[in-house]
Design goal:
Blueprint: E1 4-5, E2 8-14, E3 17-22, H1 24-35, H2 43-70, E4 74-81, E5 84-90, H3 95-122, H4 133-154, H5 162-175, H6 177-202, H7 205-232, E6 255-256, E7 263-264, H8 266-269, E8 283-284, E9 291-292, H9 294-303
Parallel strand pairs: 3-4
Antiparallel strand pairs: 1-2, 2-3, 4-5, 6-7, 8-9
């Protein structure tokens, strides 16, 4: 049975990845299908066209998720909604791993370009029946251009689009994690402002919604980059290293007890809250967000060579 989660309906699971469909997708689907109802001889062909868009977006998101798993990251959920799809990926905090996790999505569309192009060319073949030819002639080229349009839009170097995140990953090699995110977010904000201007000029509500979504994500990325820069300036504790990102934990009471709400330093107290005595089996890395037992932090510190 489908289950609801955050307003979404669970469709199926593949390779341990749950696929959800947001309820608002149905509203937009009805609107889009009705608005293009005169293109084909039957509305069923419009439905097929929209389902093809659904499949292309789904394959794109699976590209992200499977690539993330390939580099050792976590990816177990995909949500499809009117503005596209979201693959909830958590790659290791390394520029190469992040770059591959993001780039794999558009690469799926790149692979589909010659495949769909070949099928579109086949519409000129006499193999199609006279009854089906006009609709197929419209459908396959339309699906080809849908895929190509999604590819071009996604690789625009505007955060949080894939192109903006690929740019951020490339800058990460040179500028570091925080400054690369800051640069990508600022460029993304400029791009979002340009999209808002284009939406106003064209009086396109849908484009305006996309631009607003982009601006909100860019601002969130900008604030996150500021937090990372502040974190980088903190004093670090010797003798402990995160097994995932190799960062030493900051010295200070930056962790909060979930039971009593008091701040404490788990590396001073053996991962036990000094106020309510709650014991924590794992401690979160404030740099990458991963959870590890305190003894694993110490073991990683011993294993990491220093030159």
């Amino acid at each position: 049975m489908p289950t609801r989660r955050d307003g979404s309906i669970r469709l199926f699971a593949f390779a341990g990845i749950d696929v959800f469909l947001h309820w608002s997708w149905f509203l937009v689907a009805v609107y889009e299908i009705q608005s293009r109802s005169g293109q084909y001889s039957s509305i069923l062909w419009n439905i097929l066209e929209y389902l093809a868009l659904f499949l292309i977006v789904l394959l794109h998101e699976f590209g992200h998720a499977l690539a993330c798993r390939q580099v050792g990251g976590n990816a177990n959920r995909i949500v499809l909604w009117p503005l596209g799809g979201v693959a909830y990926v958590d790659p290791p905090p390394r520029p190469g791993a992040t770059l591959w996790s993001i780039a794999a999505g558009p690469l799926v569309n790149v692979v589909l370009v010659p495949t769909l192009g070949f099928l579109a060319v086949l519409t000129h073949s006499p193999l199609w029946t006279a009854a089906g030819r006009p609709n197929v002639y419209e459908l396959l080229p339309s699906v080809f251009w849908i895929n190509l349009g999604l590819l071009i839009f996604n690789i625009l170097p505007i955060y949080p689009l894939d192109g903006g995140q690929i740019l951020r990953s490339l800058l990460w090699f040179v500028l570091g994690r925080a400054r690369s995110l800051m640069a990508a977010a600022i460029l993304g904000l400029l791009g979002a402002v340009a999209f808002i201007g284009l939406a106003v000029w064209r009086q396109d509500l849908w484009l305006g919604a996309i631009a607003l979504y982009m601006a909100m994500n860019c601002w969130s990325g900008f604030k996150h980059a500021q937090a990372l820069l502040r974190m980088a300036k903190l004093s670090r504790r010797a003798g402990f290293t995160c097994p995932t990102c190799n960062s030493a934990p900051p010295v200070g009471t930056y962790w909060k007890c979930a039971q009593c709400g008091q701040a404490f330093d788990p590396f001073e107290t053996g991962a036990s809250c000094p106020y309510c005595r709650t014991q924590y089996p794992t401690t979160q890395c404030l740099d990458c967000g991963r959870q590890h037992a305190v003894h694993e932090w110490a073991s990683a510190s011993i294993a990491v060579p220093h030159f």
